[in-house]
């Protein structure tokens, strides 16, 4: 496939700039739409090559469309990433300094937890320890809603996790800032927060829940892939990706 940037590539990039992140099915549907709209060759198995062509033109601008996995469901996502800014300062145009401080504190809570989650109560309490202008409870709640809306955090039943977008975009920052706390999944080798942990004290590897489901599927006796100890956790079912994706 040609490495020349064409109108189909530009349309794809424009949509990524608007959405920030799309799941794999959404990216494939968008790829097909862009090729058909501009009457260019469409090869279903060439999505990554198509994106590589875009990335070759984005490189001088320190931008990249990067692929990553959702810790929640195991689906693959594509996100448009600013390579020049690898930390929380990339959000400074949208958030005030005290809002960014609370986001950092929320990241601290999530990364430092055993299950990759932080409760709304813990986040509200951390707001009391801020060094910049303190946020009222209502302001903190509004900020958390904005962070979820902007796809930096995810929320379920009052518990917050780092979103797929956040992990893909801020991976270098996370690995640098939390290098003593962050581990990678034994199976997919991506950063692991929401995961199962081997209970052997000399092992302690982490495996994402979706990776656990896929790795142990069909095995009569689940054993740790690193130390071969019995894997005592409940094995989740493999979740099928949605056939249709919102775009």
UniProtKB/TrEMBL annotation:
Extent of the signal sequence: none
GO cellular component assignments: chromosome, telomeric region; nucleus; Smc5-Smc6 complex
Subcellular compartments: Chromosome, Telomere; Nucleus
KW Transmembrane (keyword) present: no
Pfam family, one: SMC_Nse1
GO biological process, one term: double-strand break repair via homologous recombination
InterPro entries cross-referenced by the UniProt entry: Nse1, Nse1_RING_C4HC3-type, WH-like_DNA-bd_sf, Znf_RING, Znf_RING/FYVE/PHD
MF terms in GO: ubiquitin protein ligase activity; zinc ion binding
Source organism, top-level taxon: Eukaryota
Coiled-coil positions: none
Every RING-type domain range: 185-228
EC number of this enzyme: 2.3.2.27
Family matches, as CDD domains: RING-CH-C4HC3_NSE1
Gene3D superfamilies: 3.90.1150.220, Winged helix-like DNA-binding domain superfamily/Winged helix DNA-binding domain, Zinc/RING finger domain, C3HC4 (zinc finger)
Top class in the EC scheme: transferase
Keywords carried by this UniProt record: Chromosome, DNA damage, DNA recombination, DNA repair, Metal-binding, Nucleus, Telomere, Transferase, Ubl conjugation pathway, Zinc, Zinc-finger
Catalytic activity: S-ubiquitinyl-[E2 ubiquitin-conjugating enzyme]-L-cysteine + [acceptor protein]-L-lysine = [E2 ubiquitin-conjugating enzyme]-L-cysteine + N(6)-ubiquitinyl-[acceptor protein]-L-lysine
Keyword Transferase on entry: yes
Role noted for this protein: RING-type zinc finger-containing E3 ubiquitin ligase that assembles with melanoma antigen protein (MAGE) to catalyze the direct transfer of ubiquitin from E2 ubiquitin-conjugating enzyme to a specific substrate. Involved in maintenance of genome integrity, DNA damage response and DNA repair.
Subunit annotation: Component of the Smc5-Smc6 complex.
Family (UniProt): Belongs to the NSE1 family.
Annotated protein name in UniProt: Non-structural maintenance of chromosomes element 1 homolog
């Amino acid at each position: 496939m040609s490495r020349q940037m064409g109108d189909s590539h530009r349309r794809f990039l424009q949509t990524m700039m608007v959405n920030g992140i799309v799941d794999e099915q959404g990216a494939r549907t968008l790829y097909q739409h862009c090729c058909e709209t501009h009457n260019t060759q469409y090869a279903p198995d060439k999505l990554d090559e198509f994106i590589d062509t875009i990335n070759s033109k984005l490189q001088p601008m320190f931008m990249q469309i990067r692929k990553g996995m959702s810790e929640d469901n195991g689906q693959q996502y594509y996100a448009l990433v600013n390579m020049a800014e690898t930390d929380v300062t990339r959000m400074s145009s949208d958030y005030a300094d005290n809002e960014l401080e609370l986001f950092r504190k929320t990241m601290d809570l999530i990364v430092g937890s055993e299950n990759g989650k932080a409760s709304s109560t813990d986040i509200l309490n951390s707001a009391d320890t801020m060094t910049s202008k303190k946020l009222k409870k209502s302001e903190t709640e509004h900020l958390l809603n904005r962070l979820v809306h902007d796809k930096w955090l995810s929320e379920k039943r009052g518990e917050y996790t780092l979103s797929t977008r956040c992990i893909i975009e801020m991976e270098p920052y996370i690995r640098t800032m939390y290098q003593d706390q962050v581990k990678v999944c034994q199976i997919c080798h991506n950063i692991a927060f929401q995961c199962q942990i081997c209970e052997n004290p000399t092992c302690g590897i982490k495996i994402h829940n979706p990776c656990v489901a896929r790795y142990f599927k069909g095995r009569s006796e689940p054993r740790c892939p690193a130390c071969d100890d019995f894997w005592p956790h409940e094995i989740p079912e493999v979740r099928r990706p949605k056939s249709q994706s919102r775009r």
